[in-house]
Amino acid sequence: MSNKKYKSKYERLANQPVKSLISSLAAPTILTMLVSALYNMADSYFVGKIDTTSVASVGIVFSIMTLLQAVGFFFGNGSGIVISKELGRKNRAKAAIYASTAFFTAVGIGVALAICGFFFSEPLARLLGATSTTIKSASGYLKIILLGSPFILGSFVMNNHLRYQGSAVYSMMGIVSGGIINILLDPLFIFSFKLGVKGAALATIISQAIGFVILLLGTHKNDNIRFSLKSFKFSNEVYVTIIKNGLPSLARQGINTIANITMNFACAPFGDAAVAGMSVFNRVMFLGFAVTLGFGQGYQPVCSFNNGAKRYDRVYDGYKFTAIVTTAIITAFAILSMIFAPQMIAVFRDDADVVQIGARALRFQCMALPIVAFSTLTTMLMQSLEISGKATILSLSRQGIFYIPLMLLLPKLFGVTGIQIVQPIAEYLSLALTLILATKEIKRLKGLSDSIKNKSI
């Protein structure tokens, strides 16, 4: 290990002005999230050139993509928080144990999922909401996606580990490279090789495998922690800590999977156009949310590291700065989406029914978007401070506690309109719960910050 490099990274996280530090860490993370959103959307865009049923099929399998992301972020954030905190305490050996244990466990789970997908893709597709018209293309797409599970899960873990070590640039290189390759391969496999929906899935897993290799190389750069079977530790202490810290991420991402499946079943009685319209709506929303989430992820290593170093003033100042910036970003996106909603939906499927359904849902959501940044960032703060109980409840609230019951009820009362208004209503209810659970913790953090600042005067 190079002590000079480690000291430089330590000093940067501990002493660089918070605003410039978060911005420098957020820039590559935002780009990473944007490219991730774009290559998630690429399948919908190119498949949209085939037919509405194909778009619906990809939308149905998107639930599995969110599940894989949930598992990857569960292990990545669950261990990453400890990695960052232990680096703040200058305990590199312990950080290496959590990094290796999380990585090898996630890849092992990916292998198990690949086996399940190979043999049970059709029944799994039906569980996700596939209908008689979508089952063939959905199950074919799903089988190939699940074969890439080891690379997908491993990439998400490494992505988070690199971020928490302040090496977001290396994280960005792996994700962005994979995203660009996916976008280039999609039209080649779908149209030139005439593989249709299966071609989109094949492009995805090839790009994920390449991104996996690039991220793995990134762990060998800039004094980042390397994975080693010697550091792998199968112990209750390690896994309990990872589970505790990662549970909010699993809850947040995992509940998205259940929410998507619930939405697919709610849309099914209204036809493939409803499934496709709401699927495209979710992809467009993810694009706007990606920027906000990316900036928040730039804050997380600063929060965890300085919490470990007991620099609570930097934790609180960073939280305030990030809340203001992310709210401004997502409000600007809401204004643009309100104005250009039909055009944004039509990019993916220029079908009158699909555009009408998706654009109306998007405009309803724009009425709630400005509040999303605060709720999301506050949940990330609770998680990074290891207040995992409250963080888990808040993670479940937006797409679970409120969204799923509303999605089961409102379509029965208001038809397609009921589906379209579920998300914004859930956002406002989630904000209310966030204020109830987090206000005390934020005040406590502010008190610790003020105490440090008063001592330095």
Keywords:
single chain; 457 residues; mainly alpha; 16 helices; globular
Distance between the amino and carboxyl termini: 37 Å
The geometry reads as: globular
Rg over C-alpha atoms, rounded to the nearest angstrom? 21 Å
Count the strands?
Answer: 0
Could you please describe the fold and organization of this structure?
- By secondary structure, the protein is mainly alpha-helical.
- It is 86% helix and 0% strand.
- The protein is built from 16 helices and no strands.
- Helix 3 runs parallel beside helix 5 (135-147) and helix 9 (236-267) packs parallel to helix 14.
- It is globular, with a radius of gyration of 21 Å.
- The two termini are 37 Å apart.
- The model is unreliable at 1-6 (pLDDT under 50).
Q: In brief, what are we looking at here?
A:
The chain is mostly helical and 457 residues long. The chain has helices at residues 3-15, 18-47, 52-88, 92-127, 135-147, 149-164, 168-192, 197-218, 236-267, 272-308, 312-346, 352-366, 369-384, 388-401, 403-414, 416-456. The chain starts with a helix and ends with a helix.
Topology of this protein?
Layout: H1 3-15, H2 18-47, H3 52-88, H4 92-127, H5 135-147, H6 149-164, H7 168-192, H8 197-218, H9 236-267, H10 272-308, H11 312-346, H12 352-366, H13 369-384, H14 388-401, H15 403-414, H16 416-456
